[in-house]
From TrEMBL:
Name of the featured protein: CO(2)-response secreted protease
Source species taxonomy: Eukaryota, Viridiplantae, Streptophyta, Embryophyta, Tracheophyta
Organism: Citrus clementina
First and last residue of the signal peptide: 1-19
Family listed: Belongs to the peptidase S8 family.
Keyword field contains Hydrolase: yes
Active site: 153 (charge relay system), 226 (charge relay system), 564 (charge relay system)
InterPro entries reported in the protein's UniProt record: Peptidase_S8/S53_dom (IPR000209), Peptidase_S8/S53_dom_sf (IPR036852), Peptidase_S8_Ser-AS (IPR023828), Peptidase_S8_subtilisin-rel (IPR015500), Peptidases_S8_3 (IPR034197), S8pro/Inhibitor_I9 (IPR010259), S8pro/Inhibitor_I9_sf (IPR037045), SBT (IPR045051)
Domain Subtilisin-like protease fibronectin type-III, chain residue ranges per copy: 680-777
Keyword GTP-binding: no
Domain Peptidase S8/S53: 145-623
UniProt keywords, alphabetically: Hydrolase, Protease, Serine protease, Signal
């Protein structure tokens, strides 16, 4: 299990888009096997939607001899309407085509799961630029504890010290949720910190087409660890002396320790049901959460449009109800156009590193020291040396050298491996590090050294107590040269130590999914990056043999990586800001975090990607979050529900469907609704998918709201690549007393610009604030 190290990335296995016409008579019998579908029916009227009406709808299309299928798996009734049920493809097509109140019908997708130092690192970066303002300063000791974060994930481990409620006030009266009882989770497991816990059923189909339901272990309790880790990262209490068996030791805390947590278990180790995620979002909104955090997403290979994506649907209605939704961008990097959860009403988060590394040192018999990377809890020492051998030299009979050097399963001779430290090359993407480690372990090796030509791209691998180190190609050449230069080569692998103050940081993680967005390139995605590499947070204590040192208790904290870990960092930061600015809307908080993000690392140079090149906004979004700066952004871009409705118009959805989704039932799409106009919605960044160098300048408009002092003047500054002409009108914004909002336009002319994407920024500055808006313009 890994995310990347421990948890699998939550990606959609497959998604079939149902046509709006009935199935032909030649449809295969497999198309008539019932399977779970989601029927989305738009916005709710707040008076409740009777289940009976949905059951009657099902009875009109399901044959009477299969009446047992006339039942609802999930029923959505709070902020949006709809249900999930077992349908054949033909029945789904009939519903989609024949009922005007239905917005979309789609197969229930299965999505997969996508810190001591991290928060200190973010604070240190802010202090370096504004040393008089610290996260933990007395000014913020009495912030509101009424912010409620809903975590939709694999559940929660309530006994973790991160969820203690010491010093917390009574639960706010706005909370309407529940703490569900089960065989291993009692209502008493909830407290003033963990104020709610729900779990959901997912549908299964047996061979005789009967519907059964499973309830994800029938408990809100987390058995995987993913949900516990993300919840504690977002809002865990202060826990002194936390570590992973001594590594990353420090005080663990979430981004908003004063906030409340409500856990919604919609996922298991096998993945997440889209219909269950929708149910969880519907419940969370009704329960009274302020922010929903979802470290889950579809596969970038099978992205669906916004009205067939359960997270996009639920997030749209959450935004209408004033609930902020923050999601992971995905772990399919470094390829372009892999970012998911790209709807503009979702805050999309990529992953970056922090200033800490985990070093596992290899000592060769000739006295040479090789520094590698790993999270290894081995008990080896410098005095415990073993023979060392390269994989190709210990190959099993009839095994190709190419397989043995990469240590593929079955490629090594166990008799030649036993008692040795072995060396493998990691240039076969079909054999992950975990498999290579198991190959070595099963053959009774004493340790494994992995040579990786792309060493800089990897996150530290957790090998448990098995000695392990990963090195780059230069160090690998030195090791192999030593093996070949002596008759009896020996080595040892020392246990991991953590290295603080690592530079440069942050660096965009290689696995973090990149833009531009596949559905539309006229919204810049991801929005921001946040710490997501080797993050320490609470975990489910597991007593798996070999995963922790003999004589020790299972760890309550673990070090994991993924955009799943970056997402709750932004969630915690958003909750922290909301607890200080209680009247700020979701879009104001989002804008504040985006326009104050940093684009420099701890060496003062522009952010880099894993390859060592300057990172583009398609990798970083607008930059790395800086929560302290976001408390006082000066100007903000408020993106309204009507902005999002116009986005849906420009994207190409029908006015009828858009009205059914909205609280504005008389909403009309602009007469000229084309995809290019998406660039004009009032978003805190700018993206233009096509700027024709042979045509006139393209102009976009933005409106800013002053949330700082009155009687202030902002002056614009443009940072653009050579050849791209960018003009801002007006160049000066004067916020006289009583003036809160002002508009400006930005024009782009690309006749002399380089082809492809050009990146830059427009920055509005007064004497106190710097409001940065990144842009991405594709010149053609």
């Amino acid at each position: 299990m890994a995310c990347l190290l421990l948890f699998p990335f939550l990606s959609l296995h497959c998604l079939v888009v149902i046509a709006s016409s009935s199935s032909s008579s030649s449809s295969s019998s497999s198309n008539q096997i019932p399977k779970p579908y989601v029927v989305y029916m738009g916005s709710s009227s707040n008076v409740g939607v009777a289940e009976l009406a949905h059951l009657q709808l099902l009875s009109s299309i399901i044959p009477s001899e299969e009446s047992d299928r006339i039942s609802l798996i999930h029923h959505y009734k709070h902020s949006f309407k709809g249900f999930s049920a077992m349908l054949t493809e033909k029945e789904a097509s009939v519903l989609s085509a024949g009922h005007e109140k239905i917005v979309s019908v789609f197969p229930d997708p299965i999505l997969k799961l996508h810190t001591t130092r991290s928060w200190d690192f973010l604070e240190a970066e802010a202090e370096a630029k504004a040393p008089t303002s610290t996260w933990s300063s007395h000014k913020y000791h009495n912030i509101s504890s009424d912010v409620i974060i809903g975590i939709i994930d694999t559940g929660i481990w309530p006994e973790s010290p991160s969820f203690k409620d010491r010093g917390m006030s009574e639960i706010p009266s706005k909370w309407k949720g529940v703490c569900m009882d089960s065989h291993d989770f009692k209502k008493s497991n909830c407290n003033r910190k963990l104020i709610g816990a729900r779990f959901y059923s997912i549908p299964l189909t047996s061979n005789n087409h009967n519907t059964t339901r499973t309830t994800l272990a029938g408990s809100p309790r987390d058995s995987v660890g993913h949900g516990t880790h993300t919840a504690s990262t977002a809002a865990g209490a202060h826990v002194a002396n936390a570590s992973y068996f001594g590594l990353a030791r420090g005080t663990a805390r979430g981004g908003s320790p004063s906030s409340r947590i409500a856990s919604y278990k919609a996922c298991s180790e096998d993945g997440c049901s889209g219909s269950a995620i929708l149910q969880a979002m519907d419940d969370a909104i009704a329960d009274g959460v302020d922010i929903i955090s979802i470290s889950i997403g579809m596969s970038s290979l099978f992205q669906s449009d916004y009205l067939n994506d359960p997270i996009a649907i639920g997030a749209f209605h959450a935004e209408q109800m004033g609930v902020m939704v923050i999601c992971s961008a995905g772990n399919d990097g470094p390829d372009p156009s892999t970012v998911v959860n790209t709807a503009p009403w979702i805050f999309t988060v990529g992953a970056s590193s922090i200033d800490r590394d985990f070093q596992s040192t290899v000592l060769l018999g000739n006295g040479k020291t090789i520094k590698g990377s790993a999270i290894s809890l081995s008990n080896l020492s410098s005095s415990m040396t073993y023979p060392i051998a390269f994989g190709k030299d210990i190959a099993a009979k009839f095994t190709p050298v190419s397989e043995a050097r990469t240590c593929r399963p079955g490629s090594l001779d166990p008799k030649k491996v036993a008692g040795k430290i072995i060396v493998c090359v990691d240039d076969d993407p079909t054999v992950p590090r975990k498999i290579k480690k198991l190959v070595a372990e099963d053959a009774d090796a004493k340790g494994l050294i992995l040579i990786d030509e792309d060493y800089e791209k990897h996150v530290p691998f957790d090998s448990g107590i098995f000695p392990f180190s990963e090195v780059g190609s230069v160090a690998g050449f030195q090791i192999i040269h030593y093996i070949n230069s002596t008759k009896n080569p020996t080595a040892t692998i020392l246990p991991t130590v953590d290295v603080p103050g690592y530079k440069p940081a942050p660096v965009v993680a290689y696995f973090s999914s990149r833009g531009p967005g596949e559905l539309t390139e006229n919204i810049l995605k991801p929005d921001v990056t946040a710490p997501g590499v080797a993050i320490l947070a609470a975990i489910v204590p597991k007593a798996n043999a070999g995963s922790f040192p003999i004589g020790k208790k299972p760890a309550g904290y673990a070090i994991t990586s993924g955009t799943s870990m970056a997402c709750p960092h932004v969630t915690g930061a958003a909750a922290f800001i909301r607890s200080v600015h209680r009247r700020w809307s979701s879009s104001i908080i989002k804008s504040a975090l985006m326009t104050t993000a940093t684009v420099y690392d701890n060496t003062g140079k522009p952010l880099k990607n894993n390859a060592g090149s300057t990172a583009s906004p398609h990798e970083t979004g607008v930059g790395e979050i800086s929560p302290l700066k976001a408390l006082n952004p000066g100007l903000v871009f408020e993106t309204t529900t009507k902005d999002y409705l116009r986005f849906l118009c420009y994207f190409g959805y029908s006015e009828k469907n858009i009205r059914s989704m909205s609280k504005y039932t008389n909403f009309n799409c602009p007469r000229n609704s084309i995809d290019n106009l998406i660039s004009n919605i009032n978003y805190p960044s700018i993206s233009i998918s096509k700027l024709d160098r042979h045509r006139a300048a393209e102009t976009v408009k933005r409106t800013v709201t002053n949330v700082g002092l009155q009687n202030v003047t902002y002056i614009s500054r443009v940072n653009a690549p050579s050849g791209l002409i960018v003009k801002v009108l007006p160049q000066k914004l004067v916020f006289a007393e009583g003036v809160k909002r002002m508009s400006f336009s930005v024009s782009f002319y690309g006749k002399e610009a380089a082809g492809g994407y050009n990146f830059g920024s427009v920055t509005w500055s007064d004497n106190r604030h710097s409001v940065q808006m990144m842009f991405a313009v594709n010149v053609q």
